[in-house]
Amino acid sequence: PFNSLVWIFVMAICCCSIIIVSLRKYIILPKLSLYILASPFLLIASGFFSGVEQPLLWFFRLSVVIGGYLFFYSIFQYQLSVRMVSNSLYVLVIFFIIHSLVSIVQILPGMHMAAIIPNVGNMVPMGIFQQPNMQASLMATAVTLAFFMVSLPDFQFRPVLLKIALVALVFLSSFALFSSGSRIGLIGGAISLFFMILVRISFLKRKPKWLFMMALSLSIGVFSGMQINDGFLNAYSKFERLSESGKDVRVHVYRIGFESIIEKPFFGHGIGTFQKVFHENAAKYQAQLGGVNLIGDGRYTHPHNEILLWGMEGGGVAILALLIALIVFLIQLYKVGWKKGGAYFALVFPILIHTQVEHPFYVSFYHWFLFLFFSYILFRKNSYFKSVDFSVFGIFFIRVFAVILFSVSLVFFGKSYLYSYKIGGLIFSGSGTIEELEKMGRHPFFTDIASRHMLASLVAHTESPESINYYIDWMENYVERVPDVGVYIDLARMYIKISSEEKALSTIDYALYLYPEHSRLLHLKHTIDNNKIDSDLNHNPIINSQ
């Protein structure tokens, strides 16, 4: 749900910047704009070259990319001074402290403040992102940012409370990081902090008292985080599994992804095809190695690597777009010099490396826009003014467009926020009215999950052949693009309801081909083979698919 709130604030910033441009009649652009804009252009073009398997998914993904670049350019229009940028970073520090306090609440035994803080009661710091690695990469960024703030020239003129806040942030965020059990968080945090100290040591040495306090706070936070739970030991055991050949599933996932790119290297398989293509190729890959389960029981919505995802769906065109973005970023780092460029690189490193093992920008738009804000700080000095001549009608149109854009965004993301909570409640309660589900199903982002729950509820309440057949038709179309284990199971059970055991068995056999050794699939197959009626026939499909 928090992603919707992030978008509301971002769209407010973007729409206000559009009005600012219409008032001033000039726009501020970074000097490498032509190359910066080449990346989103190529990503858009990759969809036309490769084809769009799922138009709605393509639209949402490109909206995030375009919205991100709009946000990036919007910040330039505010003409922030050095002091204002520094103030913005202190605002981030305060919010990072709040994020770390959320971690601490989640680590404590019991369900504290469960009404406002996501808390599953397993003493794992998930943050508001409800995902430990997301919180860990943010905490790694927080530690690095705190040391960067101490190295800035204006640190000595800041109030004592703000200086103490930096010390507190180092303790809290390192505590949360080392209790998270996140490999990528620890790697990103260690490398980024080392790099930050390396490039800013000449400035840090000028504040020996505060540097000592920061180092002491870091040491206490690390030690405490290692003692509070088994997070650090879990992370260490993950490193051990990674060092053992074939023990980490990502090795197989990356290999399958790379082989999928080789199949269609230029334009890819099409935007939105990842899940279908990946699981079909994964089934072939596992069959060649004896038919054993090498990638786990879950469905993959992402190959846990940003380059592989765009490469599989958009081919070389999409990879070229990412490569151009990286080159432009590195050129700008070089332009601002070792001490500044190195510091900015250290700030974005935990999130950047996270994109190579997971999909942080898809789970959390907070991370996406945080990365873009740090990128703005990197590019802000190398910018120029370009006059834009608008007619009276043009000025009026631009302002009306900005107001309409924000109004539409407010309604869309406001409903998204509300529906996120409602659907979450339905999943946990296992019940909901048909009217509620039908209404939520009209929202493009929740169409699939609401439709599935609605159809399952219709079957459970009416048991009519029409509702069963309608549910079967929907699931047959759905698994063509999304090979969800839960849907395969529901589909097989609906076939049983209409006495089509042969179709049920063929469905389960194909699902077992995609997901070898899956326990629930094997159980259902055994049930059908022995002519037993599954007592859980009218289960809640959403609960079972998670």
Distance between the termini: 18 Å
* H and E string: HEHHHHHHHHHHHHHHHEHHHHHHHH
> Fraction of residues in helices?
over 70%
Total discrete domains: 3
Estimated share of beta-strand residues:
under 5%
Folded structure, characterized:
With 546 residues, the protein is mainly α. It has helices at 2-24, 33-36, 38-50, 55-76, 82-107, 132-151, 160-178, 183-204, 208-228, 231-243, 249-263, 274-288, 306-336, 338-354, 360-363, 365-379, 392-429, 434-441, 447-462, 465-481, 485-497, 501-514, 519-529, 541-545, and strands at 26-30, 383-387. Strands 1-2 form a two-stranded antiparallel sheet. Helix 11 packs across helix 13 (306-336). The protein starts with a helix and ends with a helix. Residues 534-546 have low confidence and may be disordered.
Secondary structure elements and pairings:
Blueprint: H1 2-24, E1 26-30, H2 33-36, H3 38-50, H4 55-76, H5 82-107, H6 132-151, H7 160-178, H8 183-204, H9 208-228, H10 231-243, H11 249-263, H12 274-288, H13 306-336, H14 338-354, H15 360-363, H16 365-379, E2 383-387, H17 392-429, H18 434-441, H19 447-462, H20 465-481, H21 485-497, H22 501-514, H23 519-529, H24 541-545
Antiparallel strand pairs: 1-2
Helix pairs in contact: 1-4, 1-17, 3-4, 3-13, 4-16, 5-6, 5-7, 6-7, 6-8, 6-14, 7-9, 8-14, 11-12, 11-13, 13-14, 14-16, 18-19, 19-20, 20-21, 21-22, 22-23
